[in-house]
Amino acid sequence: VAKFEKIGGLMAERTTDLKDIRDRVVAELRGEPEPGVPSPEEPVILLAEDLAPADTAGLDPELVRGIVTQLGGKTSHTAIIARQFGIPCVVGAGSALTQIQDGSLILIDGEAGEIETTPDPLKAEARAKESAEVQAKIRSWTGPAVTADGTRVQLLANVQDGAGARSAAATGLPVGVG
Questions:
Q1: Do β-strands 44-48 and 155-157 pair in parallel, antiparallel, or remain unpaired?
Q2: Domain 2-118 is of which CATH architecture?
Q3: Which of 134, 104, 137 is nearest to 121 (CA)?
Q4: What does the H/E/C string look like for 58-78?
Q5: Which H or E run includes 54?
Q6: What is the pLDDT of residue 29?
Q7: What are phi and psi of 149, to 5 degrees?
Q8: Where are the domains of the chain?
């Protein structure tokens, strides 16, 4: 793990995966419950130092409306899985995360990687509506996959499980798996 962290970049982002595997194996050997994120009882934005891919994959997008982590990067497995689930995610927020109090109203923009800690409620509502409209446009898009100058591009789906594969195939578009 230390060697991966020293290398930096993509390899450093993968140390979360290695630590998670280590912690799960140790818990199994000790007869302890696996580490993980408890399920919230109401919708929340989850704040964490970092999240393991297995923890992110186990989140309910109906209850976890956003994720902010102190560590990580845009290519971390947590960020990739959150995008697949449609959960806005800001990773690598650093010390900004420590300034947020439990129960605070915050606004996160996963695309821009921004956190607003004291958002105006009307502005927050407008941004949420705008985001829902963009997501609806994305879901209704039928192609073709071309750039603004008409160059065709190949679409690849990030598939985690059977449901993800069925979802990618259901678009009716020629899609590959990456």
A1: unpaired
A2: 3-Layer(bba) Sandwich (3.50)
A3: 104
A4: CCCCCCEEEEEECCCCCCCHH
A5: helix 53-57
A6: 92
A7: -90, 10
A8: 2-118
